[in-house]
Design goal:
This is DNA mismatch repair protein MSH3. Heterodimer consisting of MSH2-MSH3 (MutS beta). Forms a ternary complex with MutL alpha (MLH1-PMS1). Belongs to the DNA mismatch repair MutS family. The chain is an alpha/beta fold. Among the domains are: 171 residues, 2-Layer Sandwich (Nucleotidyltransferase, domain 5), CATH 3.30.420; 86 residues, MutS, DNA mismatch repair protein, Chain A, domain 3; 185 residues, P-loop containing nucleotide triphosphate hydrolases (Rossmann fold), CATH 3.40.50.300; 112 residues. Helix content is 49%, strand content 13%. The chain has 32 helices and 23 strands. The longest helix is centred in the middle third of the chain and has 33 residues. It starts with 26 loop residues before the first strand and ends in a 23-residue tail after the last helix.
Length: 926
């Protein structure tokens, strides 16, 4: 793998692109793209692990950016599409559909979607489902039948009812499961939710990988990524919720602020945070979503003539064993886990009592639901309280009365069913027979270490000896035993008598399980009526766990609460991963970041290893942390909420797509430009690192300039790192909202040896050290005459270019427009600021007035003398033109006098006061 730092100007050798998202694929997706130019698409996703169903419908772009983004966030195991969308469907839903319906041909739009899915998910089958199964009315019937009855039910039905494509996808999904896998679901047991993509931020796959949001680029087993840093969650539900939020951050400030209120309360109250974390620790081994889905949601019907696929069942978690007793035993396991979960809720509920934040109050309300107590009462009424108590869930074996097998056999209380009690007595007698046989053989052969052991569920007993004792007695006892299995330190074996007694024992166990099933079904019937509260409880605990993890991290580190404004302002920001995992030697250098409408496009240059890439990633990571509701590592931070985070960071070839470095760059930038069109530009954050390095310098500058112009016009906040000094000259001179920055370095050019010191500090303007490449040449000991000649030529060319820029009156006009645009932005910031001190406000206005006067004086002549294409300039500087409609032309201007008592400040003229001779030139701040 390539190193994190790059020492050369050319990209690294090509390598295979790794998967962008970690974690096993667990979703079945049904996708129905709309016909025509509308680009509406309905998507239904079913999590095969916990039975969760997510329904959505939205309008996508021509490149299906949103659809692919959703699929990446829910890693698919199978993708269902209309049969007509696939040129050669791999599977058909039913054989009769082939005879009655031709596959048809895919539209160009659907073909592009299929191509995108095949590219993104090479190993995931795209299954064609006959068009007749994409039925809106049948889909709504499935929805009303299966959705749990809770307070969200009406809202989900209302949201889904007009969504033709989403309802049709629901029908196709459940028809496919019924026909292909004989899988159905009990009524009113599925947690089905409608999710609108408008409330989440789009992060493309390359950004997820390059920003190391959920996986480390260099080591897939490493936890040195954002998810690994933030995942202090105690429960599996919390970790899943955190991962989902990192991949799709929120965009609504009010919702994010509610989370931040909770984190702030927990940070300020260490006692409450400690109590919540301690209560959540008791749920560490509990996954409520999976428990509920296994107990209630899935039913496997007997399969009659069901076809099979080479992939096997896509629902191994829901499959019933051919042995009915094994299925019942599994349900008993989950039932006991549910009982233990409910027993911990009082402690968790007390930890959030009397809270101030809205979320903690909502969590408390969910945990106080009377239906949870009803479920607990049903379980307590039927389940033996002395079996498998909390804290004693280890599945032991042999004669251990608290082992997993004993817990399942005696889980149902005695006297609930007379025949069940008789079957248990028979089981005890058969168990005693097995133990008696072991005692008899131990005495007969003098085997002091002979013991009975047992495997997992339903496993038979076998004898066990140490390897040493077996070798010693093997000649005497070898013929008396069968099925000898020699292990590393012990030997397991059986006998004909033991096998007979095992058979009787297993027969009695099956009788117990079958009789327990009748009582279980009665219990489940009562619990199903309250299942909605279990789903709500799981969601509440997941959110609480995630926010408590945020608070725990924020309290231990020097993190601050972010604010939401129209500007991006970070004071002393720090890279969270570098700080947490100590990824670099020495202390990390904090940096300030500021972007606004007047400075929306920021060019950053500097030598390799100066910290450009680290700064870019830092800005993106802090944005993600803020929009999921976490405090951020900075002295102060305010953000403009974004609906899309778009990056181009890697300079590697893409061998999987047979793309060179430059082609890979262009493919990524094409996606970014398409996403900027699909989203409002001002709601996007674009991060670009050294675009155009994969081709010649001339072509690189040209393509970088053209793409930069498109981003500038979109008004998205963009941080654009580059080595092309031409961009730092041309773009700021044409666009007033372009700002040049550089990473500071200390160079002693008079030294004969390498003297480049990286200070890793962001400074205004382009880097003054344009010859840092010559400093690197010193490090490899190039001859002195060569270095001298190279420096002479570089200085000559630089001097000629600088003279041309100084003579450019058009450049002065652009500086004037940029100054007016900055004036508008700063006035807006002052007007909307939180400062109430009149003295401070007057000082800010006076300083702003002075700076504006100086700027106008410097650029006045150019504004009058230069013949400029006004329409062309207006298209580039709309905001500046808007200001000029309010502020009179500088030519012949007279201003309103500002009285000394209105803007009086103590101090000298050098400290900000205005001399009498300058009063006529003051700007009117009425």
């Amino acid at each position: 793998m390539a190193s994190r730092s790059r020492a050369g100007s050319r990209p690294a050798t090509a390598r295979t692109v790794a998967t962008s998202y970690e974690g096993a694929a667990s979703w079945v997706l049904a996708i129905l793209p709309g016909r025509g130019t509308g680009r509406d698409v309905g998507v239904v996703a079913l999590d095969k692990e916990d039975g969760q169903v997510v329904v959505t419908q939205f309008t996508d772009s021509t490149t299906w950016v949103k659809t692919l983004h959703l699929c990446r966030n829910k890693p698919p195991d199978v993708i269902l599409l209309p049969q007509s969308a696939l040129a050669t469907p791999r599977y058909a839903l039913a054989a009769e559909s082939e005879a009655n319906e031709a596959a048809g041909s895919a539209s160009p739009e659907a073909a592009m979607l299929v191509k995108g899915l095949q590219t993104e998910f090479k190993d995931v089958p795209l299954i064609g489902v006959a068009r007749k199964y994409w039925n809106e009315q049948a889909g709504f019937e499935f929805l009303t039948q299966l959705i749990v009855h809770d307070e969200d039910r009406l809202g989900v039905l209302t949201a889904c009812k007009p969504k033709y494509y989403a309802l049709s996808a629901i029908c196709a999904l459940f028809k496919y499961l019924e026909t292909s896998y004989s899988l159905s679901f009990a009524p009113k047991t599925l947690k089905i939710g409608y999710s609108a993509l408008e409330g989440t931020c789009l992060i493309d796959a390359d950004s997820v990988k390059n920003l190391e949001l959920v996986s480390n680029m260099l080591n897939k087993n490493s936890k040195q990524h954002l998810l690994g840093m933030l995942d202090k969650c105690c429960t599996a539900m919390g970790t899943r919720h955190l991962r989902s939020n990192i991949l799709s951050p929120l965009t609504e400030p009010s919702v994010i602020d509610a989370r931040l209120d909770t984190v702030e309360e927990l940070v300020k109250s260490e006692e409450r945070l400690r109590a919540i974390r301690k209560a959540l620790e008791q749920l560490k081994s509990v996954d409520l979503d999976k428990i509920v889905s296994r107990l209630l949601a899935a039913e496997k019907r007997p399969s009659t003539g069901t076809r099979s696929t080479s992939r096997g069942s896509i629902f191994p978690s829901f499959q019933s064993s051919t042995d009915p007793s094994s299925q019942i035993a599994s349900k008993l396991d989950y039932l006991l886990s549910l009982r233990n979960f409910l027993s911990t809720l009082p402690t968790l509920r007390s930890s959030v009592e009397n809270s101030d934040s809205i979320i903690l109050m909502q969590v408390e309300k969910v945990l106080q639901d009377d239906r949870l107590e009803q479920i607990r009462a049903v379980i307590e009424e039927n389940v033996n309280p002395d079996i498998w108590k909390k804290g004693d869930e280890k599945r032991s074996s042999g004669r251990d009365a608290n082992g997993g097998r004993h817990a399942r056999l005696f889980a149902i209380k005695a006297e609930k069913k007379r025949l069940l009690d008789v079957a248990r007595e028979t089981w005890r007698e058969n168990t005693s027979d097995v133990n008696d046989l072991c005692d008899t053989l131990r005495d007969k052969y003098g085997l002091e270490g002979l013991a009975l052991v047992q495997g997992g569920k339903g496993s038979a007993y076998v004898f066990q000896l140490t390897k040493e004792e077996w070798e010693e007695k093997k000649g005497e006892i070898g013929k008396a035993f069968t099925n000898v299995n020699v292990l590393k330190k012990r030997v397991e074996f059986s006998s004909l008598d033991l096998q007979k007694r095992n058979a009787r024992l297993q027969e009695s166990e099956q009788e117990i399980y079958l009789m327990s099933e009748e009582i279980l079904e009665e219990m489940f019937q009562e619990i199903r009526g309250c299942v909605a509260c279990l789903y709500k409880c799981s969601e509440a605990i997941a959110l609480l766990d995630m926010l408590a993890a945020f608070a725990d991290l924020s309290a231990k580190e020097d993190y601050v609460r972010p604010e939401w404004t129209d500007t991006l302002a970070i004071k002393a920001g720090r890279h969270p991963l570098h700080e947490q995992f100590r990824l670099s030697d020495g202390s990390f250098v904090p940096n300030d970041t500021y972007a606004s409408d007047a400075a929306s496009f920021q060019l950053i240059n500097g030598p390799n290893m100066s910290g450009k890439s680290t700064l870019l990633r830092q800005i993106a990571l802090l944005h993600v942390m803020a929009q999921i509701g976490c405090f951020v590592p900075a002295a102060y931070a305010s953000f403009r909420p974004i609906s899309a985070l778009l990056t181009r960071l890697s300079n590697d070839d893409n061998l999987e797509s047979s793309l060179s470095t430059f082609a890979s760059e262009m493919a990524t930038m094409s996606m970014i430009l398409a996403a900027l069109q699909a989203h409002e530009g001002r709601r996007c954050l674009v991060i670009v690192d050294e675009l155009g390095r994969g081709t010649s310098p001339e072509e690189g500058v040209g393509i970088a300039f053209a793409i930069a112009e498109e981003i500038i016009r979109s008004k998205a906040f963009c941080f654009f790192a580059t080595h092309f000094k031409e961009l730092s000259i041309a773009l700021p001179s044409r666009y007033p909202n372009v700002v040049a920055l550089h990473l500071e370095t200390d160079v002693d050019e008079k030294q004969p040896d390498f003297s480049l010191t990286f200070l890793h500090k962001v400074r205004d303007g382009a880097t003054p050290h344009t010859h840092y490449g010559l400093e690197l040449a010193k490090a490899v000991k190039l001859p002195s005459p060569v270095l001298y000649k190279a420096r002479l030529v570089s200085l000559t060319l630089e001097s000629l270019a600088e003279d041309g820029r100084k003579r450019s009156s058009e450049g002065k006009l652009v500086r004037r427009r940029r100054g007016l645009l900055e004036l508008k932005t700063r006035l807006r910031e002052i007007a909307t600021g939180k400062t109430d001190d009149a003295g401070v406000l007057l000082a800010q206005l006076r300083q702003l007035q002075k700076e504006t006067i100086e700027m106008l004086d410097e650029t006045m002549d150019a504004a009058q003398d230069v013949d400029v294409d006004v329409e062309a300039e207006a298209s580039k500087t709309e905001d500046a033109e808007e200001i000029e409609e309010v502020i009179p032309s500088a030519a012949g201007w007279r201003v309103t006098e500002i009285k000394p008592e209105d803007l009086s400040l103590a101090g000298t003229a050098e400290e900000g006061t205005v001399d009498e001779e300058d009063e006529e030139d003051m700007l009117p701040f009425d």
